[in-house]
């Protein structure tokens, strides 16, 4: 399958818009690469450059190691799937799927075989005689997928293929598409602004902002060890807590994190201390995911983060407490049985007080 290498690719449109800025990115053989970022960050432009529908202003596009800047789109062995499905409304489903084969001059019997194989794999064998207007959104997207895979391309380019579908169907199809693509082993670049889609489908995720690549890695890497503050704040819901702190390391004793309203003393034998100690005397930003915080009882030894609960949010399987120390959220599923009310009623306030107590713990004496 096709490998892709982008080298310092920049795209400046005629009106001066820099849509892609010095992007270098590799997609390995059979890899499922997701381009993720907010609207307008340049994702679709990257896809169009790889497809040959747009020329880079600067930089190189290599397909299987060969410079492809001047290669016509039809010679690139690429199939594209779009958000609006782009099916021909006057053709049957079968003819839509067969269309790329017809263009490639494949004879009719062979076309019929391939179409029924693909339709069977996608579960749309029953609707081959219908026209796109007679299908559900999910079926239309399967037809679009069918048309993309029927010619067995070396590379799939998918531009927000699920964004016109409702959320239940999106979740179903994202598993289906990533399963199918992996079964076929076709290298894929998949564009989305939906982080759940990116994190669940990708082998690796490339995160873009204003045309610039911010981070690239496996979903676990970019979520757990984001390369930039932007990525840290962009990925995850609730967003990562980002707390500004000054670091004071006292060798062999402790590392103090001065958060302004409170100071945390991390014991020296804590692995985090060694990491943070490196920034002695500097201002840093500490990133903590909500799920890494645990509510503790008041008599919990050691240092704890303390904050007043501003409001609670229930999500069924867990609850989140938003505290006044930045945008901090804490999973509160362990905070005891019974419903917890928001803080604007007498009873609610009473309950919240109790939870603040349990969360806050006792400040540890400074060593
Ligand atoms: P979306 O998710 O909304 O599709 P995107 O991340 O795919 O956004 P692009 O469509 O690649 O972003 O656009 C990147 C930037 O380039 C945007 O500022 C856009 O307005 C601009 N742009 C795209 N096409 C052109 C064009 N033909 N001429 C001028 N500017 C363009």
UniProtKB/TrEMBL annotation:
<dbReference type="InterPro" id="IPR047641">
    <property type="entry name" value="ABC_transpr_MalK/UgpC-like"/>
</dbReference>
<keyword id="KW-0067">ATP-binding</keyword>
<dbReference type="InterPro" id="IPR015855">
    <property type="entry name" value="ABC_transpr_MalK-like"/>
</dbReference>
<keyword id="KW-0813">Transport</keyword>
<keyword id="KW-0547">Nucleotide-binding</keyword>
<dbReference type="InterPro" id="IPR027417">
    <property type="entry name" value="P-loop_NTPase"/>
</dbReference>
<dbReference type="InterPro" id="IPR003439">
    <property type="entry name" value="ABC_transporter-like_ATP-bd"/>
</dbReference>
<dbReference type="Pfam" id="PF17912">
    <property type="entry name" value="OB_MalK"/>
</dbReference>
<dbReference type="Pfam" id="PF00005">
    <property type="entry name" value="ABC_tran"/>
</dbReference>
<feature type="domain" description="ABC transporter">
    <location>
        <begin position="4"/>
        <end position="235"/>
    </location>
</feature>
<protein>
    <submittedName>
        <fullName>ABC transporter ATP-binding protein</fullName>
    </submittedName>
</protein>
<dbReference type="InterPro" id="IPR008995">
    <property type="entry name" value="Mo/tungstate-bd_C_term_dom"/>
</dbReference>
<dbReference type="InterPro" id="IPR017871">
    <property type="entry name" value="ABC_transporter-like_CS"/>
</dbReference>
<dbReference type="InterPro" id="IPR040582">
    <property type="entry name" value="OB_MalK-like"/>
</dbReference>
<dbReference type="InterPro" id="IPR003593">
    <property type="entry name" value="AAA+_ATPase"/>
</dbReference>
<dbReference type="GO" id="GO:0005524">
    <property type="term" value="F:ATP binding"/>
</dbReference>
């Amino acid at each position: 399958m096709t490998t892709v290498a982008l080298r310092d690719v920049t795209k400046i449109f005629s009106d001066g818009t820099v849509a892609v800025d010095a992007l270098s990115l590799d997609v390995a053989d059979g890899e499922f690469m997701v381009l993720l970022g907010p609207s307008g960050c340049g994702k679709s432009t990257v896809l169009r450059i790889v497809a040959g529908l747009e020329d880079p202003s600067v930089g190189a596009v290599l397909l299987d190691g060969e410079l492809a800047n001047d290669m016509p789109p039809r010679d690139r062995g690429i199939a594209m799937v779009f958000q609006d499905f782009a099916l021909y409304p006057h053709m049957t489903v079968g003819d839509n799927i067969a269309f790329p084969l017809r263009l490639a001059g494949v004879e009719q019997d062979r076309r019929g075989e391939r179409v029924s194989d693909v339709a069977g794999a996608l579960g749309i064998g029953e609707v081959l005689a219908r026209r796109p207007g007679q299908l559900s959104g999910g079926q239309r997207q399967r037809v679009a997928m069918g048309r993309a895979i029927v010619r067995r391309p070396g590379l799939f380019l998918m531009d927000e293929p699920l964004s016109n579908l409702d959320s239940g169907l999106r979740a179903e199809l994202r598993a289906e598409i990533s399963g199918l693509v992996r079964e076929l082993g076709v290298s894929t670049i998949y564009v989305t602004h939906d982080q759940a889609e990116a994190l669940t489908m990708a082998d690796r995720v490339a995160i873009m902002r204003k045309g610039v690549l911010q981070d690239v890695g496996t979903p676990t890497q970019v979520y757990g060890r984001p390369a930039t503050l932007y990525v840290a704040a962009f990925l995850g819901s609730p967003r990562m807590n980002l707390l500004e702190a000054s670091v004071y390391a006292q060798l062999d004793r402790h590392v103090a994190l001065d958060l302004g309203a409170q100071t945390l003393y991390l014991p020296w034998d804590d692995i985090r201390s060694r990491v943070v100690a490196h920034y002695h005397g500097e201002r840093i930003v500490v990133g903590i995911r909500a799920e890494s915080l645990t509510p503790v009882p008041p008599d919990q030894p050691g240092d704890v983060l303390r904050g007043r609960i501003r409001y609670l949010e229930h999500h069924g399987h867990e609850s989140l407490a938003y505290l006044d120390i930045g945008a901090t959220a804490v999973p509160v599923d362990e905070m005891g049985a019974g419903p917890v009310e928001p803080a604007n009623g007498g009873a609610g306030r009473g309950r919240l007080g109790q939870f603040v107590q349990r969360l806050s713990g006792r400040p540890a004496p400074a060593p």
